[in-house]
Amino acid sequence: MTSTTPVLDHAGLTCADLAASLAFYHDLLGMPLLEQGEAQARAAGIEDAWLAFAMLDAGRGQMIELLEYRRPRSAPSVAPPVSSAGGGHVALGVQDLDGLLARLAEAGVHPLTGEPVTVSGDGHWDGARLVYVLDPDRHVVELIQFAAGSRIHG
């Protein structure tokens, strides 16, 4: 890596209701809240934008930034499906996928696949178990539990 090679600092997700997104990411998934507040949103290039934000610890110095635009109001999600250009997902490594899925099910959140998918093949993905779920704004969130001895994120 050179001094000009970018490194991931954070991923930003726009949400309609910051409290609902915090209930999902912080309360259900257990991501620590690092900072929360309100600010003028000059960097987005939107005239007179004002937003509420929360920064969540995603591990290894990386963060998830939740943004609720108050002016102009965040519109309901019209994100393309994960399989379409412009669609995407956030992947989070976890230590106990089954325990987390039980907690999510109690809150009415269910995997898009029904059950975890186990990956087979070479490299760090071999034996990984994963599911996709939707957050309150229909952002796709991949939850991954890597096999013992593999690259573990959680």
Automatic annotation (TrEMBL):
Name of the protein: VOC family protein
Signal peptide extent: none
A Pfam family assignment: Glyoxalase
Family matches, as SUPFAM superfamilies: Glyoxalase/Bleomycin resistance protein/Dihydroxybiphenyl dioxygenase (SSF54593)
Protein origin, superkingdom: Bacteria
Gene3D superfamilies on file: 2,3-Dihydroxybiphenyl 1,2-Dioxygenase, domain 1
Domain VOC residue range list: 7-146
